[in-house]
Amino acid sequence: MNNIRIGHGYDIHQLADGKKLIIGGVEVPHSKGAVAHSDGDVLYHAIIDSLLGAIAEGDIGKHFPPSDPAYKDIDSALLLEKAYSLIQNRGYAIGNIDTTVILEKPKLRGHIDFMRKNIAAILNTDINNVSVKAKTKENCDATGEGNAIEAFSSVLLVGT
Description:
By secondary structure, this protein is an alpha+beta fold. The chain has five helices and seven strands. The chain has helices at residues 42-54, 60-63, 76-89, 112-122, 141-144, and strands at residues 4-17, 22-23, 26-27, 32-34, 92-102, 130-135, 148-159. The strands form two sheets. It has a five-stranded mixed β-sheet with strand order 4-1-7-5-6. A two-stranded antiparallel sheet has the order 2-3. The model has no long low-confidence stretch (mean pLDDT 96).
């Protein structure tokens, strides 16, 4: 039997007027975007945490601290690539990944397949191994009021 590992990740960012909203490597048209040290891609950040968690390597802040100017406004795809290289170096590949983005507005349905393609390409896996779902919080709490965006990620890694 192959060695398997499971990881879980989560991220949240405030939303503010005049910022870009980037989710899963896709710039989603909206009047608000994520407040962050990097580009604020909450979905990539949650995936990074799930990958690092699966191999017991801490979280995104340990590897890419917001105090480091090298990561100021960085494209989160580069961070995801670096996290994935750690997985590969440990002898693992993606079994499957399941994610959820929580955002009141805008609706993401038309962007999800592009997000899945981006994630699959970076993680060197088939798009059918990548799930991206979108949910709202029904106007409850800061996310539900349109002031934040959240993402969850679960990943199954398989030994190669």
